[in-house]
Amino acid sequence: MTKYWLMKSEPDVYSIDTLESEGKTHWEGVRNYQARNFMRDEMSIGDQVLFYHSNTKPPGVVGLAEVCSEPYPDFTAWDKKSPYFDPKTDPESPRWMMVDVAYKETFKRLVTLDELKEHPDLEEMLVIRRGMRLSVQPVDKDHFDTVLRLGKQ
DNA sequence: GCCAACGTTGGC
DNA sequence: GCCAACGTTGGC
Q1: A151 pLDDT more than 90
Q2: Which amino acid residue lies closest to nucleotide B8, measuring CA to C1'?
Q3: Are strands A136-138 and A4-9 parallel, antiparallel or unpaired?
């Protein structure tokens, strides 16, 4: 059963344009247990992903991607040269997990965070909640469809 | 670049 | 196991 997600990335670090040119990527660097658990326990191949640009102005959903691997250990955690290096984990017992994500499309237009906040059908969407910092979060199918429609119009 | 909101760490 | 200190996220 297909699930729906929103995944945040800072465009300065990894933008949807980069994903488009690479085709797919491993979603490295998630160092939050709740986000890790979503990837590890609930994601499966074919799940649909709203690609969100954070820490930019304006922030918002820029396109669509798709989960294209099972979860597997995030090897950047024990790569000393990686910005995501975590000295407290090791390959014997991986702490952090990731999935591969494939490019699907870039929206005709950016669906901004402000727009999500103002849309009457998206009041319950997690991403608009104050203090919501999860970089990987589940999205209801209804919300997903609404955002998709906004992005295509 | 500020800072509020969170999550994590570590002393006790 | 409490909680203060610290670090990070991410909108603004």
Answers
A1: yes
A2: A32
A3: antiparallel
